[in-house]
Amino acid sequence: MEISEEVVIIGAGIAGLATALALKRVGIGSLVLERSPVLRTTGASISLFPNAWLALQALGVAHKLTSIYSPIQKGYVTNVATGAIQQVSFMGINGTNNGPTPVHRRTLVETLAGELPPGTIRFSSKLTSIQTVTMDDKVSSSITIISLDNGTIIKARVVIGCDGVNSVVARWLGLTTPVNSGRSAIRGLAVFPKGHGYKEEVHHFIEQGKRAGFLPLNDKELFWFFIYYNSSLKGEETPAGPKLLQKDVMENLAKDFPPSYLEVVEHADLATVTWAQLKFRYPWDLIFGHTCKGNITVAGDAMHPMTPDLGQGGCSALEDAVVLGRQLAKSLHPNPNGHGRIVAVDAARAIQGYVKERRWRVVGLISGAYLSGWVQQDGSGFFMKFLRDTIFYRFLFHRITDLHYDCGKLPSVSSLSE
């Protein structure tokens, strides 16, 4: 079977769904290809900072989430070795709250998907190859031919890879493989049927080479995590199942952590417990590498995988979607037959505008996330303690997490037709 599409998005994660929604808002139809048979809703929670909420407002769905979830007001950082506790405020210099709002990942994904027209997502669609065919000797008018494992051939004017850390589209563009940070993370949800009793506060615990924490999603559920160095693990080796992961945290990795943290892990919903290596892309690969070729580009983790130390992976993916929608809207021309709009031959220029706008923003986030993880988790000597407790938490933390970056608005369909 052979079909033609204006825009094809590879991957129905947060980046892919948000991009499809942004394109819908500006009058561009798209097809989202997802290799899984159903919507991928795995992952316990995602923290949305103010910049993510601005992107969700532009996408028109922020109000569906703000009525359910509340932002974190402040945090406490406990030094496991000494027992010292330091309070961290999320209030910015201008009096605004810079704190994260923890959201169920399932809820966010389902909210984005629910805004898309029926048939936008095609499940069980695995990409096998990508090739471009230049029309009239013009790179900007090239057509991309996508082959799927079921024999389907798709001709697309624009292809956007939102297929995650191990992106096929990123490899096709020539971006280097994301590198292992040397750390792994175990995450999950803790459920307290009678209520956990915690306010809108995040609790962090640090020890040499280890960092953990928990924060509430609602009055009965807490998101928890444990990040540690995994130099003994090789390649993609994955530890045992959820029950043994929980046991390893409680009886080995975090056995010296405060009882409050161990109690949270003990209440884990095993269906939500996951393990993953933390990877990132070298910033200079985004500066000097190819993040687009003609009408093909990447977004989300496919473009800028980063460690979770700033909580900006999902937030920046939402920003990508809005910028892509706004830039591609510039390439729209009226369809002569009156049935909507088409992506014009200058879509390549629009994609270049997207890459130019996003490159330095995500380079800064990748670098900031790595620095944040290094300062908070590396070493226990006097210098590192001074850098972390006196410099980072007191002076730098507010500036790094003052994430009110505005990725902009999306033009309305009516304004584009004028």
Automatic annotation (TrEMBL):
A GO MF label: FAD binding
Keyword Flavoprotein: no
Cross-referenced Gene3D superfamilies: FAD/NAD(P)-binding domain
SUPFAM superfamilies in alphabetical order: FAD/NAD(P)-binding domain
FAD-binding domain sequence ranges: 6-332
Keyword annotations: Monooxygenase, Oxidoreductase
Alphabetical list of InterPro entries matching this protein: FAD-bd (IPR002938), FAD/NAD-bd_sf (IPR036188), MOase (IPR044560)
UniProt xrefs under Pfam families: FAD_binding_3 (PF01494)
Entry superkingdom: Eukaryota
Keyword Nucleus: no
Homology family: Belongs to the 3-hydroxybenzoate 6-hydroxylase family.
Name listed for the protein in its UniProt record: FAD-binding domain-containing protein
Organism of origin: Protea cynaroides
Taxonomic classification: Eukaryota, Viridiplantae, Streptophyta, Embryophyta, Tracheophyta
